[in-house]
Amino acid sequence: MIKISNYNIYLKFDLQLFAEGPGGEKTEKATPKKREKARNEGQVAKSTELINSVMLLAFFLSIKILVPFWSKNFMNSFRNGFSKISEIDLKGMTLNTATSIFRWGILEIIRNIWPILLVTFLIAIIMNVVQVKWKISTKSLQPKFSKLNPIKGMKKMFSPQTLMELVKSLAKVGIVVWITISTLTGEDSVILILYDVSLIQAIGVIGEMIIDLGTKISVFFLIVAFIDIKYVRSKFEKDLRMTKQEVKEEYKNIEGNPEIKGKIRRKQREISMRRMMQDLPTADVIITNPTHFAVAIKYDISEHPAPFIIAKGADLIAARIKEKAKEFKIEIVENKPLARMIYYNVEIGEQVPQEMYQAVAEVLAFVYSLKNKKK
Fold first, then answer.
1. What is the pLDDT of residues 150-176, one digit of tens each?
2. How many CB atoms lie within 10 A of CB 338?
3. Which domain holds residue 368?
4. Does residue 170 sit within a domain?
5. Which of 21, 61, 96, 298 has minimal Cβ neighbours within 10 Å of its Cβ?
6. 43 and 94, same structural domain?
7. Within this chain, do residues 297 and 201 fall inside the same structural domain, yes or no?
8. Of the ranges 39-53, 275-289, 299-313, which one carries the lowest mean pLDDT score?
9. 307-322 tens-digit pLDDT
10. Is 344 in a helix, a strand, or coil?
């Protein structure tokens, strides 16, 4: 609260209004898990401008390539169509006859335009795969009742992003109009002679003009699309950013809570220690440092072809191993270098490495000789 002058007027501020959200500001890059989740939900950095512009360019280029083929087909179709019409007695026109003519017309249209439809369909698939790879997601198609909220709809209509899109659309329309006017102005001499040529020639000239104009507009939209894809990817990365707290929470969910993992590790050590102490009475010898390390070795050719480690420990654990050894009357041999080498290089259950055979064999021979003397 802030006191103003000498009057008892206080202004109360809610500091949460200034907060960046839970966990602070979103400054961290999205983790692989969040990216995968967004992808599964259909949220990808995809530019529809790029897809539409390439499809439009492919459409006009396909028309340019197919014009010779179309001209013959259309002329044949017109001849066939007019011949059919002239053969029909209008008084005897039936529903079946009309349906037959309509079906013939539709099939003729499809026969002529199917290459363009196929090309644009393939282009749409290829551009989607190039941008976001192949992954089908149905979550984006699922109905969301939150989208039906009129208040949110109004906010979205008058949001800065919507206004920016409107400005972009008006700018594109303006440039398209400018391209159209400049193209037609350059062809004014050609347009004037259309009255002096045949219908087929006029259709050919107009068709060439339309294809040329469409190609120019497509190239313009393609340039816009390359700018748009950079903007879309940048915005997508910004929207996916996470706070430091979100990254920590996700790490906990993936790796597990550190406290729980610590408890599990302690439990595992306790179980391992209990098992080790249970196996200790079967040891042939305990090699010590003498105070810091203790290693229990057993040699049983029915279990392993070489001596192997059944227990080891440092400091307090080493002391417990020696206490157990005295309890079960296991020989304790002091060999500082050997005890240290085995402790750091050989794990419990592993055989003694070949380079330590000689030293371990001497210890075991000494132990066996002591046992024989006692007997």
1. 666 566 666 677 777 788 788 888 888
2. 22
3. 276-374
4. no
5. 96
6. yes
7. no
8. 39-53
9. 888 888 888 888 888 8
10. helix
State residue 302's pLDDT score.
Answer: 80
CATH number, domain with residue 341: 3.40.1690.10
Are 88 and 212 part of one and the same domain?
Answer: yes
pLDDT at 145: 54
What number of H helices and E strands is found in the chain? 12, 6
Is residue 175 in a domain? Answer: no
Task: State residue 1's pLDDT score.
Answer: 46
Provide the domain count of the chain: 2
**At 330, is the secondary structure helix, strand, or coil?**
coil
Longest dimension (CA), the chain: 132
Query: Which of the listed ranges 107-121, 180-194, 260-274 does the model predict with the highest average pLDDT?
Result: 107-121
Question: Are 354 and 224 found together in one domain?
Answer: no
CB environment 72-101: b (16+ within 10 A), e (fewer): eeeeebeeeeeeeeeeeeeeeeeeeeeeee
CA distance 25 to 326: 62
Task: Extract the tokens encoding 85.
Answer: 């019409």
Phi, psi of 353 (to 5 degrees): -60, 160
Whether 166 maps to a domain, the answer reads: no
Strand order from edge to edge, sheet including 285-288: 308-314, 293-298, 285-288, 331-334
CA 177-160-171 angle, to 5 degrees, is 10
- How many whole angstroms separate alpha carbon 205 and alpha carbon 188? 12
Distance, CA of 227 to CA of 2 (rounded, Å):
49
* Phi, psi angles (nearest 5°) of residue 309: -90, 130
Whole-number Cα distances in Å, 268 to 93, 263, 273: 92, 9, 8
Q: Are residues 205 and 303 in the same domain?
A: no
CB 3 within 8 A of CB 224: no
Residues 6 or more apart from 197 whose CB is under 8 A from it?
205
Peptide bond into 22 cis (omega under 30): no
Tell which phi-psi region holds residue 288, choosing left (phi > 0), alpha (psi between -120 and 50) or beta: beta
